[in-house]
Amino acid sequence: MKDNFEQQLNQLKIRPASSDYQPKAKALLNEISSKKKALNWSFLWAMGLMISLGLNIYLYSNFINGNKQPDLIAKHSTAQKRRHGYSIKQGAMIPYDGNNDVIIILEN
Amino acid sequence: MRIKKIGKIFKTHQKQFYVLALSITKNREMAEDAVHDAILAVASSQSTIQNLKAYLITSVRNKALHACVKHNKPLEVDNYIETDYISAEQSIFANQIMQSLKQLNNDQQQILIMKIFGDLTFREIADMTNNSPNTVASWYRRGLKILQEKYNER
Question: Contact, B96 vs B154, CB < 8 A?
């Protein structure tokens, strides 16, 4: 059984926390959550940019500024070839698509 | 994910965190700041945490202790006991008790404040102070006895 002193003590209570206590904690957590989300999006965006850049470099080096295949050149007419600065060089006659057409190996 | 968990833990145990910090700092503003600082630190931490609740409790305690050390000069102790809704006689008694409490050691002060004024159970206090409920009960009884002696000496 509690004595008188303890009973008197039990009537005293601590002052409750201020009205800001809970809202401030929530606001802090929301702020951290927003920052983390923003960081994740920035990371994804940077990764996307790097992949896109890499892809562009690959495409540019292989297809756009690339190695023109002889058969592509050969599809142009002689006049077109001259216009594009290619000289005609007599070379080996090579069957083309099995049609008995020939192509002439050209050089720049 | 962790932030949601912290939010849930805080919602459930906000009073316990506040009482724990207050029992150390004896100042309401410092106690609230300690709890908020602890939440910020744990939420921002990159390390893997197994037991989030225990980690938060430890963090609150450390932040409260750090706040006390930071204010090196004797701090103006807040009247942390509610005196607005009690009689004048009880108010005088409350002030005398707060003075007598200062003469106890920190552990005893902490447990008495948490048990008597904070209405926490021995189990909850044991969780907060990382001790067994039996140890807490033992410190409480000893602290109460000393408090009564100090109060009677006045």
Answer: yes
The C-alpha atoms of residue A89 and residue A86 are separated, in whole angstroms, by: 9
Residue A104: C-alpha distances to residues A66, A69, A108, B44, B112 (Å): 21, 13, 13, 70, 102
What totals of helices (H) and strands (E) does chain B contain, helices first? 7, 0
ipTM of the shown complex: 0.79
DSSP letter, residue B20: H
Mutate to test the interface with A, among B9, B10, B96, B152 (most CBs of A within 10 A): B10
74-103 in B: which are within 8 Å (CB) of A?
79-82, 86, 90, 93-94, 97
Distances (CA, A) of B41 to A33, A35, B49: 13, 14, 12
Taking an 8 Å cut-off on Cβ atoms, the answer to whether B119 and A13 are in contact is yes
CA atoms within a 13 Å half-sphere pointing along the CA-CB vector of B43 = 27
Percent of all residues in chain B with a pLDDT value above 90, rounded to a whole number:
46
Residue B59: pLDDT band (50, 70, 90) is very high
**B124 burial via Cβ count (<10 Å: 0-12, 13-18, 19+):** buried
Q: Closest partner residue to A9 among B6, B43, B116, by Cβ?
A: B116
